[in-house]
Every structure is written in C-alpha cells, then in structure tokens.
Design brief:
CATH class of the largest domain: Alpha Beta
Distance between the termini: 63 Å
CATH architecture of the largest domain: 3-Layer(aba) Sandwich
Number of strands: 15
Number of domains: 2
Low-confidence stretches: 1-22, 27-46
Strand order of the largest sheet: 8-11-10-9-14-12-15-13
Order of helices and strands: HEEEHHEHEEHEEEHEHEHEHEHEHEH
Strand content: 15-25%
CATH topology of the largest domain: Alpha/beta knot
Number of helices: 12
Largest sheet: 8 strands, parallel
CATH superfamily of the largest domain: SPOUT methyltransferase, trefoil knot domain
Helix content: 25-40%
Structural class: alpha/beta
Length: about 350
C-alpha cells in the first residue's frame, strides 16, 4: 500500500556538457551533507509520512490520513511506536512518547486543559478494534486509529491487554528541558522552572519505577520541579511513565549536570539538602534528623532535595557539598527504598505542609 505519494516514472535526462554535470553533482553532494540524518529508514512502500519541515531537530513520523486501522504487528508505524517505547534516544530524536493506559492519558489531558495556553499534543489515540472511547476523552478532537489485539499487546508491553483501553502517541512536553553537557552554562535558569522554591534533584536514579514514583510524589506535594543529574533513567521510559501516572507531563523536569545545578543554586540562593542514612556517615559528617521543627526551620528557604541511587546512595559530590538529613526509624533497618524515603522527605519539606 502506498502512502498517497505519487512517484514519477524514470525519465531519460537530456545530455549535458561534462562540466555542467560535474558542477551539479558536486553541489548536490554538498547539499546532502548539510541535511540532518534521521534514525529511521522508510521504504517508498511504507505507510508512513516523514515531516522534516519542523524548525527543531525533531523528526515527525505520522500515518497518512486515510489509515483508520492497523492489524499487523509488522506495520511500519507499529515498528516506529515500538521503538519509541524501547529506545530513549529514539524518543527524544522524534520528540514523541507512548503513554499506555486510559488513566494516565486522561490525567495528562485534564491537566493540560486546565492550563491556559497549553494544548493537548496527542498525535493519535490507538484503541482496540472493539473498545469504546475512554471516559473523559470523548470530547477531545483526537485522531483515533483502531488496532488489533496483537498490535495492542506488542505496543503496551504487558502480557494481558484486557486492562489496556488505549495507547496515546504524544509529543514530549515543552516543560521538559534537556541541557546538553557541552551546552554553555551561561543560560537563563529562570526559564527552567516557573518557580524554584522547592526542587527535587535525582542523583543517578536508574530504576524507572522509583524515578516515576518520585516525580509523582513531587507533583502531589506541590514541589516546583525535578532536576535530573547524569546517570538517571529517562522519565519518559514506559515503566517510569506508568509509575508517574502522567506526572512527567505536569511537573517541569530539567536534565542537566552539576554545573547547571550550581547555576540554579547560585541564582536562587538555594540550600542543598540530601537524604542519607545516618548510620553510614555519622562519623564523617554531621547528619540532621528529620523532624517537624527541622522542616519548619526551612519553610522559607529555597531548597533542593537530593536523593541518591538505589544501590550506591549519594554520589561523592552530593555528600561533599550538601547538608545531610536522615529519617528516624525505630526498626532495625539501615535505609529505606529511595522512593519511600523520598516520599517522606518530599511531604515533610513541602512549602505548605499544613501541619
């Protein structure tokens, strides 16, 4: 099946002087070298359209308008969507992400609908061939493509698709900022977060479930954003999205390095506080104990809360430059799971605790 594009039959070109042919060929090679390279290869017979007209470096891949249903798992668009779910670099190159499940899709749509000037950027909604449009999405002007059970199972990444009502292909939100390592730190960090009174900083959090849960908790306790240091997994990983329940589309997220974080600290005069078990560093550096009085003493102070990785804890740099705080525990445990400990710290240190 062709994608609606007309291909002209090969014609015989007129004879040209050798010098003109050489000049044209050299200019074409120079022009080709300037064009951006894409990570997806499409054959003329594939039912896909590639739009490279966008001013950004993102490459948009979409279905032709006449396609209403997909039944084969070998369809090029299915392969594109599957790669979006599996590859972080592919997701960010195309600026698109898959969201699996009606609940997180609905939460993202409801949040964006309530924000002035923000529109829901759903490229298409994939529904099972026999499913109804999920509650809360009926009134939205969304392109719907029906897919077979096999396609739904392949794209969702779960064994049973009975609970998967819908899959949405969405644009990565503009509230996500990826600061490249080579990028100059002379950038306006005021544009990173609408407010920077409370920022969650994640230091090499590699488990997508923990990262998604922490982003969801930060959103629930009214923190202003999340900053991801090198070594963190992609917040738009399918498992992270499932754990965040759409919070990755609502909370401003910045991915950067320590130089960017120091710029943020200096600009807003923020206190760097890191969660860390008291038993492991008590002799090396003082560790404050989390309490109501401790939280209230920081109520007016702009704060970055840094949480370390699951296996290694805080990085050496975090332990060196941050004040440390521990969660008191009556039980004989050295530490808590990072998402559990993070939830407690995010609750206690939120701006308006309501105590």
């Amino acid at each position: 099946m062709h994608c609606g594009c007309a291909f002209a039959s090969q014609s015989v070109s007129p004879r040209l002087p050798f010098e003109i042919k050489t000049l044209v060929a050299s200019k074409l090679r120079a022009l080709s070298a300037q064009l951006p390279r894409t990570q997806i290869q499409i054959n003329p017979s594939d039912d896909l359209l590639i739009d490279g007209s966008d001013k950004s470096t993102e490459i948009r891949v979409s279905l032709p308008s006449h396609v209403k249903s997909i039944t084969s798992t070998t369809n090029p668009f299915v392969k594109h969507c599957l790669k979006l779910r599996q590859s972080s670099s592919y997701r960010h190159a195309h600026g698109s992400v898959l969201i699996v499940g009606a609940i997180p899709i609905r939460e993202v749509c409801m949040f964006q609908a309530n924000k002035q000037g923000i529109t829901t950027e759903i490229e298409c909604l994939l529904l099972h061939e026999e499913a109804q449009i999920p509650l809360g999405l009926e009134s939205l002007s969304i392109r719907i493509v029906r897919v077979s059970s096999l396609v739904m199972k392949k794209l969702s990444g779960v064994q049973s698709t009975e609970s998967v009502e819908a899959i949405a292909l969405m644009r990565i939100p503009r509230s996500f900022i990826d600061l490249k390592d080579g990028e100059s730190i002379l950038t306006d960090c005021n544009e990173w977060f609408p407010s920077a009174h409370r920022v969650l900083v994640l230091d090499s959090i590699q488990d997508p479930g923990n990262l998604g849960t922490l982003i969801r908790s930060a959103m629930a306790f009214n923190w202003d954003g999340a900053f991801l240091l090198p070594g963190c997994c992609d917040p738009f990983n399918d498992k992270a999205l499932r754990a965040s329940r759409g919070a990755s589309f609502q909370l401003p997220i910045v991915s950067g390095n320590w130089n960017h974080l120091k710029l943020l600290e200096h600009e807003f005069q923020m206190k760097l506080l890191a969660g860390h078990p008291a038993t492991t560093t008590q002799k090396l550096k003082p560790v404050s104990e989390l309490s109501l009085d401790f939280a209230q003493s920081l109520a007016e102070k702009p704060l970055c809360l840094i949480l370390g990785s699951e296996g290694n804890g805080l990085s050496e740099q975090s332990r060196k430059i941050c004040d440390l705080v521990s969660i008191p525990m009556a039980g004989e445990f050295e530490s808590l799971n990072v998402s559990v400990a993070g939830g407690i710290l995010l609750f206690m240190l939120q701006s308006c605790s309501g105590f």
